[in-house]
Amino acid sequence: MSDQYAWNRGRSTSDDIADADDPRYETPGGAQNKANTALEDAKEYADEIPKYTQINGIVANIPDDNFSIIGGIGIRVDNGDQSLSITATGPVDIDPIPLSKVYDAGTAAAKNVGSAVGNVPVIGVDGYLDTGILPALAISDTFVINSQSAMLALNAQLGDVAVRTDLSKSYILKTAGASTLANWQELLTPTSPVQSVAGKTGVVTLTSADVGLGNVTNESKSTMFASPAFTGTPTGTTQATADNSTKLATTAYVKAQGYLVQAITAPVTLTKINSWVDVSGFYTLKAWSDSDGAVHIQGSIMSGTVGSIIANLPAGLRPTANIDMPCTANNAGDNAAIRIYANGDIQHLSGGNTLVSINGLFKP
């Protein structure tokens, strides 16, 4: 048997004392005894210290180093460093915590998720709110372009409008795909009841001739009656016979005054009969009326039958009764005369038939 007390050889401690398990001695057995005693004392002391902690406002006071306050949660209190360890050891079944106990939860925390009134809507898997909450919206743009190719090249979305200046028309994208012509719908405008004006379309500029007023000039009221020139047969009011003013006089007013009004006629060459002819180098036998209404007869004749009808005056140049008019004959050597009848006949009344010169006038 080995010497278990070899460490104490040469000292004063006896083998019996060294082998003793007595805490009064500094032997291995005594030292262990002291350590065990100190541990027991410490545990008893620790058990006397209340262990208080709170979890979500719930007080835990269990005098044990390891204990459970809720199924599945282990709690260890270390009094040495005043620490608390919580370890989940299984399924946790925690009692509901009132919302009022949750710090700064906000008002939305008390609402249910959904689309009904008072619910909190959530974003779907497609990244959008449900269309029952927010219907699909289209924000339309308007593009002004000048050709079909420009329209088909647009980066347009549904509902966008293309204004074609080359056609004076507008189109809306009804189906996705702006590069396809069939996806564009022409926007129709109401047909105007007026298709043309005076036969003109487009930008119409009318003239007086377009509306049947080609002979009408645009005159102001202040100038349209300044020195007017009437044409045709204008009419007016016939003033009283005794009127002596600057009013216009109608033909009826003039006739009522007793004035003879005779239209001026151009000289008429008379047709000779009964062998009467014009004398060469002298005036041809003619008749006409002047502005005073007097009828003139002038010309030189010869070789006709003495006492016969020379010619006939046309209507308008005839007297209302027979008239005798003096003349000369035989180269002014004889006095002669002619008679003018109401029917217009001119008769050689007296004198010779050589160079009969007629130059006279009468009032019908």
Q: Any idea what the radius of gyration is? A: 74 Å
Taking the alpha carbons of the first and last residues, their distance comes to 203 Å
CATH topology of one domain: Immunoglobulin-like
Biggest pleated-sheet summary: 5 strands, antiparallel
Low-confidence runs of at least 5 consecutive residues: 1-14, 50-72
What is the 3D shape? rod-shaped
Approximately how much helix is present in the residues?
10-25%
By CATH, the superfamily of one domain comes out as Phage tail base-plate Siphoviridae RBP, head domain
Strand content: 25-35%
Secondary structure class reads alpha+beta
The SSE order reads HHEEEEEEHEEEHEEEEEEEEE
CATH architecture of one domain: Sandwich
Whole-number mean pLDDT: 77
Short description:
The protein is an alpha+beta fold. The protein contains four helices and 18 strands. 10% of the residues are buried.
Structure description:
- The model is unreliable at 1-14 and 50-72 (pLDDT under 50).
- The protein is rod-shaped and about 210 Å long.
- The chain is an alpha+beta fold and 364 residues long.
- The longest helix has 21 residues, at 28-48.
- It has helices spanning 15-19, 28-48, 148-152, 251-256; strands at 52-55, 58-61, 66-70, 73-78, 83-88, 142-145, 161-164, 169-173, 184-186, 265-269, 277-278, 286-289, 295-302, 309-312, 323-329, 334-340, 345-350, 356-362.
- Strands 10, 11, 12, 13 and 18 form a 5-stranded antiparallel β-sheet that branches. Strands 6-7-8-9 form a 4-stranded mixed β-sheet. Strands 14-17-16-15 form a 4-stranded antiparallel β-sheet, with no helix packed on it.
- The protein is built from 4 helices and 18 strands.
- Among the domains are: 17-48; 52-88, no CATH class; 144-186, no CATH class; 265-362, Phage tail base-plate Siphoviridae RBP, head domain (Immunoglobulin-like, Sandwich).
